[in-house]
Amino acid sequence: MTQLLSTIQSPADVRRLSRTQLSTLSDELRQFLIESVSKTGGHLSSNLGTVELTVALHHVFNTPHDRIIWDVGHQSYPHKILTGRRDEMAQLRQAGGISGFPKRSESEYDAFGTAHSSTSISAALGMAVVSRNMSIPRQHIAVIGDGAMTAGMAFEALNNAGVTQGINLLVILNDNDMSISPPVGALNKYLTRLMSGSIAKDAHDLGKAVLEQLPSPVMELARKVKGHAKGMLGPATLFEELGFNYSGPIDGHDLDALIPTLENLKKLGGLQFLHVITKKGQGYKLAEADPVLYHGPGKFDPSLGIQAKTGVSKPTFTQVFGEWLCDQAQADERLMGITPAMREGSGLVEFEKRFPTRYFDVGIAEQHAVTFGAGIACEGYKPVVAIYSTFLQRGYDQLIHDVALQNLDVTFALDRAGIVGADGATHAGNYDIAFLRCIPHIVVATPSDENECRLLLNTCYQYPGPASVRYPRGAGVGAEVLKTLEPVALGKGVIKREGQSGVAILAFGTLLHPALAAAEGLDATVVDMRFVKPLDETLLRNLAKTHKAFVTVEEGCIMGGAGSAVTEFFNQSAITCPVLPLGLPDVFIDHGEQQAILSGLGLDKEGMQERIAAWLKTI
Ligand SMILES: Cc1ncc(C[n+]2csc(CCOP(=O)(O)OP(=O)(O)O)c2C)c(N)n1
Ligand SMILES: CC(=O)[C@@H](O)[C@H](O)COP(=O)(O)O
Ligand SMILES: [Mg+2]
User: Fold this and answer.
1) CA 234 / ligand 2 centre spacing (Å)
2) 40 domain-assigned
3) What distance in Å separates the CA atoms of residue 99 and residue 420, rounded to the nearest whole number?
4) For the chain, give me the number of helices (H) and strands (E)?
5) Is 444 part of any domain?
6) Among 125, 153, 478, 560, which lies 20 to 30 A Cα-Cα from 15?
7) How is the cofactor bound (predicted)?
8) What integer pLDDT is reported at residue 212 of this predicted model?
């Protein structure tokens, strides 16, 4: 039953509701969420945890005039539902439907586009200084999870905000004591101490009482009084030391606590930090019991919950990597596995169980993960950094300056390379080939199937410098994976089909398979290049003697990608054969089903055949 929810057209309707109605609305919203996400798939646990907070925020603040920035944004579904997108939830994360993350082009209520974590405070601060300079009376609210709070960028923003005068910035720490996996790090321990009330509770109560009694003209003085009171009673919180007025912890599922607190903070303005305690999966027993499983499920039956898959399914590339990592770690005790907060997604669950002292979840801290690996390599150990292609973007300078420049032996296992599907443009791993191949020393390997993934991991692991293996989200072609730890030759491709038409298709990665199918109709030669760097120059020189035209195929951006590598080599070697580069165009590619997106871009058998045939007519 969603009677009240169905009357909500915009947050203005939420602002009119009584406390009792807000409570009913929250219950209906939660029910709607479970039903809706069970039909589309999406991020469930985090959204169940932000229902009351979202209702309270839209009730108290004047959105969209006031800005709410949802960190990561995977918890913004209640916000989407209350801001006019209830019906669109049926197409969430599907082609043509709404995004799973806040998106400025989608709604005026989405103040900032997010999906990569820990950006909210910086963005809110940027908005706040403009409001200050333009004398716009506006509130800026960053809602950030305890996981997202572990990233350096969040602290860079707090550091900057703490000395910024005259702004309204409210940081709400949505602390559910969970990242995707259980949380890690010293900050988590600190937050647990705050949560237990041992640091600031008494001081907070005293401070709040003082503030509530004071008339607004003396608020500034009040803040000083409050700070002084805290100082007398015990140590200030870290956030107070950084210049914020800390409130909390409060129960983030209790509207009676949330609403007056938010109203109070709104009145106060300035630099405010509110610590809210929530439960991931709140209100859906199965998600409460296993928030990790329900972090980002596919479709499921709400009454049964997620069911274990029956039958035999092809292993995913992630599973192939996870198994390889365990086998390699068994064989080489120098191996250390590193993940920036993506244990499940990167396939490290088993590795952690079997090699706990060699497993490092460093938090949402990609830059640190890379340099941490560099340090390990300096001491003769062999770090394997398991990281999604899109998240390695965060560690780019570290990759160049800390790893490659020193030619350190760090292996990068790049998952989710290429189109990722439902998460869309924010998570697409489209750029790694281009941004890696321009860095000296680094090996860039692009396996075409699961078995080759393992073989190239072997090669890259044994290569005594920086090396990367990129593989896509999901399952491959069902190739049998040999349990070997033997490497294949570095920088050598393999001819898969000899054609007679004088056309050679050079495939970098899993698009080899549609390329092979397309080649039948074209009678083209097909090569599994295996490596973008080093490029198999000998093979290319030989092919150029017998072929008149080349096509490159990759699931990565065309600009600067593997096709560019081939063209550059041809130019340097005075090879005059024309090259048609097939890959991802120079646009951000929205969410949708992975294969459908590739087909839409002409990267399936038919598309390749058509485009190659049309191009051949022009040369
Ligand atoms: C830069 C970056 N690294 C990793 C991720 C993947 N990721 C998405 S949500 C999440 C956990 C966030 O935890 P928290 O902020 O506490 O939110 P919760 O899921 O607990 O609601 C992670 C690691 C990401 N989105 N961005
Ligand atoms: C929000 C976020 O960044 C992750 O939860 C991401 O959606 C995971 O994607 P995968 O499902 O590909 O692991
Ligand atoms: Mg959390």
Assistant:
1) 40
2) yes
3) 13
4) 25, 17
5) yes
6) 125
7) Binds 1 Mg(2+) ion per subunit.
8) 45
192 alpha carbon, distance to own chain's centre:
25
Whether 127 and 266 map to the same domain: the answer is yes
**SS3 at position 194:** helix
Residues (pLDDT < 50) of the chain are 200-233
Give residue 199's pLDDT: 55
Ordered DSSP codes for 431-467: SHHHHHHTSTT-EEE--SSHHHHHHHHHHHHHSSS-E
Q: How far is CA 56 from the centre of its chain?
A: 27
Pocket test for ligand 1, best of 179, 280, 293, 389 (most atoms within 8 A of CB): 179
Mark whether 201 is an active-site residue.
no
Question: What is residue 230's predicted lDDT score, i.e. its pLDDT?
Answer: 43
Give pLDDT, residue 483: 96
Q: Which of 52, 240, 366, 452 is catalytic?
A: 366
pLDDT at site 235: 65
437 is catalytic: no
Number of CB atoms found within 10 A of residue 448's CB? 26
Tell me: is residue 117 an annotated ligand-binding position: yes
> Binding site annotation covers 176?
yes
Residue 196 to residue 296: CA distance in whole angstroms: 29
At 441 the pLDDT is 97
Q: Indicate if 402 and 500 belong to the same structural domain.
A: no
**Same structural domain, 60 and 170:** yes
Q: How far apart are CA 579 and CA 408, in angstroms?
A: 34
Q: Which two tokens stand for residue 458?
A: 């072997």
The CATH number of residue 596's host domain is: 3.40.50.920
- Is residue 102 within 8 Å of 73, Cβ to Cβ? yes
Is 240 an annotated catalytic residue? no
**Going by CA atoms, what residue is nearest to atom 13 of ligand 2?**
345
- Based on the domain organization, do 612 and 502 belong to the same domain? yes
CA distance linking residue 317 with residue 143, whole number of Å: 34
Question: What is the domain extent for residue 206?
Answer: 201-235
Alpha-carbon distance values, 565 to 40, 433, 444, 572, 599 (Å): 40, 10, 12, 11, 24
Ligand 1 atom closest to Cα of residue 116? 26
Q: How many domains does the chain have?
A: 4
Which residue of the set 394, 416, 454, 470 is catalytic? 394
Residues 10 and 52 placed together within one structural domain of the fold: yes
The tokens for 76 are 């913004």
Query: What separation in Å is there between the alpha carbon of 273 and the centre of ligand 2?
Result: 27
**Cα-flanking dihedrals φ and ψ of residue 214, to 5°?**
-90, 140
pTM: 0.94
**Token pair for residue 71?**
């960190």
Dig out the tokens for 507 from the structure.
Answer: 């495939």
* Burial class for 433, CB neighbours closer than 10 Å (0-12, 13-18, 19+): buried
Q: How far apart, in whole angstroms, are the C-alpha atoms of residue 189 and residue 270?
A: 28
